Amino acid sequence: MSHQSGIGGTPELTAAFAEAYNSTDTRLIKVVIENERLVPVNIVRAKGTWEEDYDGAVLGNVEEEMPCYLFYRLDSRNSSGFDFVFIAWAPDFSHVRSKMLYASTRSTLKTIFGGIYIKAELFGTVRVDVSLAGYHKHLAAEAAPAPLTNAEIEKAEIRAAETGVNIGVSTKKAIATGVQFPLAPDAEAALEKFKSGAINYLQLKLNLQTEVIESAIAETTDAHSIAAKIPNNSARYSVFNFKHNHEGDNMNSIVFVYSCPGYQIPVKERMLYSSCKGPLIDLLTSSGVVLAKNIEISDGAEFTHDWLYEQIHPAKTVFKAKFDRPKKPGKGGRRIVRSTSGSTAGAGEEEEAEGGDE
After folding, report:
1. Closest CA to 58 of 24, 29, 99
2. pTM given for the model
């Protein structure tokens, strides 16, 4: 919290402010600190519109080495009077003590003038800061959204695409869960071969120019060889019919794997692959492909036989019964203590034995 200087306004200042609130004649009031008092030293009369008068009135009242305050009247009004721009001028070449004095008095002056009349505030150290161009630049900066990090921008773009933003061609379909690119003829033919069992591995890619899904690889292979087929500089969709043995049974499990090597590829490519994934899965299932698993990976090297097996058949957690602790000494059942001669001890001896155990 900044400290206040304790400097107040003069009666002349209060009178000048009261007249300016609803006066069409007053365009600018210049205020300075003299003898530890806020005083009006110049009042500029309106000649044209606020934009026509601005540079002449404002730039004509700022000095290279002397701070000051300016109240510039706009042509717009609020419920109590005209709107004003409050300008705090503190040039670079002014004395440090003067800068500190004007900075610590600024809040007091705004209170005297009345915050309801101040539509905008401008601070300047060079003339271009308080010029009309500088004022418009200030308004543009105030209206701009808060700055975002690169990660936040990418997330916003992906979120917009996934909610059905139209990217611009008639060959694709915007739906609630993403953007659907149609299958190219070669991809349709490869999918039919996969469904018939002629091949067991189908790799699909997006053509970002024509906005269709094309076939990248269509062949028969094994789980050990797929990692080498997934590129590390581009995203891909892989559909693989995994034939394996589980607990003595031969099984066929079709898996869908979306591989995306993270920030190594452009934002647009990641955005489109992420957005097209859901509609593509819907297309596969509607065409009769029953998917056992839908998986995402960032590195093709993750795709191995053992990894895939664990994805389809995760290890079961076995809960073992807890081992009961032995009872502490003295907490067991009642015992009978016999004498050395073999006869049963008396009641007193029994009680003494019990007490000893406890």
Report:
1. 29
2. 0.45
